[in-house]
Amino acid sequence: MAGDAVRLSPPQAVDVSVVMPVRNGMPHLTVQLDALGRQTYHGRWEVIVSDNGSTDDSAEAVRAASGRVPLRVVDSREAPGAAGARAVGARAAQGRLLLFCDCDDVAADDWVERMVAALAEYPAVGGHIDDASLNADSVVAWRPRITPGGLPRPFGLLPYALAGNCGLRRDVYEQVGGFDPSFSYAAEETDLFWRVQLAGYRLGYAPDAVVSCRHRPDVRSMLRQWRSYGRGRARLVARYQSLGLLPAESWRDAVATLAWLTVHAVDCVRGRARRTCYLRVLAHVVGQVQGSRDVGVLHIRREDSRRDGERSLPDVITE
Questions:
Q1: Is residue 142 very low, low, confident or very high in pLDDT (cuts 50, 70, 90)?
Q2: Half-sphere exposure of 108 (CA within 13 A, CB side)
Q3: Cβ 89 vs Cβ 18: under 8 Å
Q4: What is the pTM of this model?
Q5: What is the per-residue DSSP string for 231-246?
Q6: 63 with 205, same domain?
Q7: What is the pLDDT of residue 308?
Q8: Within a domain: residue 70?
Q9: Is the distance from CB of 246 to CB of 165 less than 8 angstroms?
Q10: Are residues 289 and 244 in the same domain?
């Protein structure tokens, strides 16, 4: 699609830009474009399709939707990865508000309207992720819920908004530097929204701004995804340890994680659900090992092995 990255609608002043990275998005891209075509928002808005090197029929799907959705396509092949694609799309966007969604999910019909209302109150917001309606029960059982009543809080610290359902006022996004393409695997949204809060801005939760998330439907692709999460998490740890916001890791965490994996290896013979959950944790740890090697920092810990409770950084967060 990148070779055909042309403007599909005339430029005009807009209030809201929805940025959506796409790399071989079919067949789900069509469903998301249909959902964006049903939005109840009546203001001036646009959808920026940030093509990250698609080779499938995504271009045809975008052209077919151009009469129903105010679309523009930008070429982000030179910034591979979702974070790079979002950053390129945001630079091309014209709106004073920036919303982000993914091409394989489905936005509720009032998603844009609800996000705009939330951004009238907060400088940055995260919406609610429905991770059940598009996925089989067996797939939902493989992983923890994403936003069960609120935004996730890694390490018990600051919350963050999921990149597939988030929004920021443009001036805030630009002030903190936007998505960092160096997070080419994962954790780019945690990094962005932590920087937003460390700059003194509040992050709100919009439970009525709903996006239905489509999980990886097979075990192999799910494990690849969680390995990427582990690599991104190690990069996140390296950055925020250097800022003094996360304590240095110790080999004690790594040993405890290895012990847990050894003891729970028996889960592999206790049924498919238990086996898949165990393999997910293992893939996440393997990704952390790879990420630790990449960034030169020790981070090897089972995702829920330490419950610090919710802590905050009141000295850097203002109302």
A1: confident
A2: 19
A3: no
A4: 0.90
A5: HHHHHHHHHHHHTTSS
A6: yes
A7: 37
A8: yes
A9: no
A10: yes
The whole-number average pLDDT for the span 116-122 is 98
Same domain, 267 and 131: no
Same domain as 187, residue 290: no
**Before 27, cis peptide (omega within 30)?**
yes
pLDDT on residue 1: 61
Q: Which residue bears the tokens 């919406």? A: 127
Query: Domain with 9 in it: what CATH number?
Result: 3.90.550.10
Q: Which helix (H) or strand (E) holds 106?
A: strand 106-107
Q: Say how far apart CA 18 and CA 153 lie, in whole Å.
A: 25
Q: Are residues 267 and 154 in the same domain?
A: no
Total number of domains in the chain: 2
Whole-number Å distance between alpha carbons of 186 and 192: 12
Residue 265 has pLDDT above 70, yes or no: yes
- Rg, the chain, Cα only: 20
- The predicted pLDDT at position 119 comes to 98
H-helix or E-strand containing 273? helix 272-295
Give the per-residue pLDDT at 304.
Answer: 54
Q: Which amino acid is at 177?
A: G
Range of the domain at 94: 2-212
